[in-house]
Amino acid sequence: MELSERKMIILQAIVRNYLETGEPVGSRTISKYTDLNLSSATIRNEMADLEEMGYIVQPHTSAGRIPTDAGYRVYVDTMMAEKDKEVEALKTNLLEKEERLDQLLKQTAKLLATNTNYASMVSAPSIHQNKLKLIQLSRVNDSQLLAVIVIEGNVIKNTLLDVSEQINEETVLKLNILLNTHLTGLSIEEINLKLISSLKTQAGIHSDIVGDVIDAVAKAIHDEDDLEIYTSGTNNIFKYPELTDSNAASELIGAFEEKQALSELVVKTLSESEETGIQVYIGNESPVSTMKDCSIVTATYDLGDGMKGTIGIIGPKRMDYEKVVDNLKDVMRQLDSIYKK
Amino acid sequence: MELSERKMIILQAIVRNYLETGEPVGSRTISKYTDLNLSSATIRNEMADLEEMGYIVQPHTSAGRIPTDAGYRVYVDTMMAEKDKEVEALKTNLLEKEERLDQLLKQTAKLLATNTNYASMVSAPSIHQNKLKLIQLSRVNDSQLLAVIVIEGNVIKNTLLDVSEQINEETVLKLNILLNTHLTGLSIEEINLKLISSLKTQAGIHSDIVGDVIDAVAKAIHDEDDLEIYTSGTNNIFKYPELTDSNAASELIGAFEEKQALSELVVKTLSESEETGIQVYIGNESPVSTMKDCSIVTATYDLGDGMKGTIGIIGPKRMDYEKVVDNLKDVMRQLDSIYKK
DNA sequence: TGTTAGCACTCGCAATATATGAGTGCTAAC
DNA sequence: GTTAGCACTCATATATTGCGAGTGCTAACA
Fold this sequence. Notes:
Two copies of one chain form a homodimer. Chain A has 341 residues and is an alpha+beta fold. Chain A has three domains: 5-67, Orthogonal Bundle (Arc Repressor Mutant, subunit A); 95-124 and 227-340, Beta-Lactamase (2-Layer Sandwich), CATH 3.30.450; 132-222, Enolase-like, domain 1 (2-Layer Sandwich), CATH 3.30.390. Helices cover 46% and strands 18% of the residues of chain A. Chain A has a five-stranded antiparallel β-sheet with strand order 7-3-10-9-8, with helices on both faces. In chain A, strand 5 (144-151) and strand 6 form a beta hairpin. In chain A, helix 1 packs across helix 4 (69-79), helix 2 packs across helix 3 and helix 6 (101-116) runs antiparallel to helix 12 (321-338). The termini of chain A are far apart. The mean pLDDT of chain A is 86. The interface between A and B is medium-sized, with 28 and 28 residues. Chain A binds a DNA duplex (30 and 30 nucleotides) through helix 3.
C-alpha cells in the first residue's frame, strides 16, 4: 500500500496531536483537527490502513491510535516543521564564556536540560588527533616529577611520575627544553619511535625519564576511559509518566550515573555523524538498551583542531522533536563559534 | 513518664521488626518476638504509653505502630547492637589502591553503594589549611601563563592566567624562583599582606603578575564551589517504596545531581564531627530539606595533613543502621590508612 | 496492682460489581 | 469515495462488600 498525500497528512496530525497530549488520538479528533473536511468514519478507514502499514497502533481495542517507532521515524524524517522562530528566544541563553572547558560543558548540559525539560548529556571533546602545546616538568621531590601537559584547546593534564634516579633542578630544566623543542606542535601520531629514540639519545643518562614522560603524554592524549560526560536534568524524566514506572526509571537513572552506556552512545554518534550533525534515535533504534522507551537526539560539535564532542537530549518518544533539534542546533553553533573567536 | 527497662525492650523490638519488614508492627507480634512472656494486651498498654511519649505512631487507627524520628533516635543512640562480625566480610572489598585520588574516591562511593544498597556520597578532602608544595609558572604564549599549583597531599590545580604585559621565558624563570622560595611550605593563612607586598616589590615591574598568581593560589586552595563530591547508587532509592513516589524521588535525584545540597551537608558534617566521626541524621534532623524522609549517616575521614573529607550514606529512615555504620567505619579506616602507608 | 482474656470497633485494602464513554469496525445508503 | 448509523469493546472510574489485622476498653484474675 502506498503512503498517499492524505495518509501523510493524517499521520502527521496523529503524531502532532499525540506529542501534545500524550493521549491516544481518535478519528473524531483528527476529523476536526485537519483541514481535510472528512468525517470521522473516513478517517477511521485511513487509520486502519495506517495501522496495517505499521505506522500507528492501538494500545487497546477501544482506544485511539498512537504512533509506532516507524510512525515517529516518518514524522521526524519528512514531516517535521522548521520553527526557526524559537531560535530567537534561545539567543537569550547564550553560554557565558567560561575560561575552563569543563565548566563550559557543565553549563551547556544544564542549559540544554533547562530549556528542553528533558535529560541532557554533553561529552568532553575527544582529543585523539590533537597537538601538544606545552610540556612542563617540575621537580616535586627527589623521586617525583610533575608533568603538566597542555594540549591544543588548552586542555591540561597532570601526571605525577615516579622516577628511579635522583634528579636536580638543572636536569629538569634541560629536559624541559629538550622536550618542548622537539615535541611541541606534534600530534601523538607524529611522535614515532624514531623521534623517541633520537630524544632518548640526546637525553643521555636521563633517557628513562624521557620514556616515562612520553608515555604519560600518550596516555594523557589518548585517555579513553577518561571520556568525560556531563549530564543534567536527570530528574526531568519524572515529568513523563511513561518513563516513571519504578523499574524503567531506576535503570535510566543508573545509566546516567554510570555513564558507561552514554559513553558508547557518544562513540557511536561521533562515528556516524553526518553533515547536518543531528541524529535521532527513536525507541528501539537506540544504541543503548536501557533507553528502549526513549528517544535520543544528538548533535556533534566541533571546536576545531579535530576536537569533536557530542551533545544530546534524552526524553520520551513523544518529545518535542522540533524544539529539541532547534536547541541542539543552537548550542552546537554556540560551541562551534566559541573557540573560533 | 519514664522510659522503663521494659518499655525500652519493647521499643527496641518494634524498631528492629520495622527495620526488617517495613510493615507497621502490632502488639501480638511483639508479644511473640520478645522474651518478655507478656500477652498482647499488656504490650498494647505499653505501646499506648510509648505512643504518648512520642516514640511511636500509628499510621492509621487500625494499624500497628511505626517508630517516629524520636523513636529511631533512641534506638540509634542507646539500643543499636554492635555487630562486628560483619566487618570480617567487608574486608574482602578492600579498596584497590588507585594512584589518583579522584579515582579512589569514585571507587569508594561505588563500594559503599554496592555494599549497603543505599545511595552514597564521598567528598574530596577539603584542603583549607593546607600547605603549598610547589608553584610552577609556564609561558603558554605572549599573553597567557599557566600556573600549576601543587598542594600538600599531591593535589594539583591548574589555572590559566591572562597577563597584560608581554613576558618572556627569562621572566617566568625568575618569577618561579621568587615565588617558590618564599611561598613553598606556607598555608594560605600564612600568605599575608605584608608578605605579598614584599614579594611585589621584589618582582619589580612584574608585580601585577605576582598579584595575579597569588590570587590564583588563594582561589585554588580555597575553591569552595569546587568541592568535588562523588555519588553512587542513586538508583538504589528505587528499592525503597517510601522514597519512590514520583515527587520525592525526583527531588532526591535532583539533589544528587546538583550536589549543592550535599555540599552543605559535607560542610556541616565536617564542622560538627566528633571523636567517633560517625553522625546520624534521622528524618527532619537532616540539614538537607529534600531529605526529610531519609536518614543520613556520615563519617569523616582523615588523610593526614588536615585533609579531611566526608563519606555518607543516604537511605530510608528504616535503614539498617548497624550495617551502614559498620560499612562507614570500615571504609573510614581504609581511607585513613591508605595515605599513611 | 499488674496481667490477661474477651469483645466491640476501626479502617485500610482487596475483590467484586456496575456504569460510563471514548473509540472502533462494519454495513448500507448517498 | 464518503458518510451516517449502530453494535460492540474495553479501559477507567465509582460504589459495594467482606476480610482481617489491630486497637482500646472492661472485667476478671493472681
